[in-house]
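Re-run with default settings, no changes from the original entry. Doing this only to confirm the output is reproducible before filing.
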Amino acid sequence: MKCLQVQKNKTIKKGKWQNFYSGIEGFDFETGYIYKLSVKEEKIDLSKVTADGSSIKYTLVEVLEKKPDPIFRIHDIWVLEAIEDKTVEKPNENDRMKSPSIEINLTEMRIMGTDGCNNFHGSIKNIGEDELKFGPIATTMMMCPEMEVPNKFNMAINKISKYKIENLKLYFYDENGADLLRFRKVD
């Protein structure tokens, strides 16, 4: 089930989001934005509440602020530049190998891409301002002439815990802050 995440504070506090399972009458959420809203709460007569319904009706009074969600900067397609801070060479055009890449889709909370030899896909388990954790990742099992980069890529992607974006580059780190993977944005 998809639901809004809310805080009933004047300022946003990291890690204090709560799932909000009701709707807000008059409010149309647009993915990729953080909103500050003024909302009216009205108690509903309990005799009129459906079995799975809320006893409170929420109505939008005013959208006070709408700004891009900084997390959505990661929602894109990225091509690998380095593994553990060592540059990865682009494969020869005659080779079956491809440049490793990852597509991060926050709308669906999914990832997909190639390790250079095999395709992969999986879920995004958790994402924050600088934290990222993938769920299980499924991959095809082809054998390519050169497996060093795909093997290192797959080991690294399973250790990702943190990220940062700087100058159209996406950096992945393990939980101790060690460099794992560096990508550049493509489009």
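The chain has two domains: 4-68, 72-186. Helices lie at 148-157.
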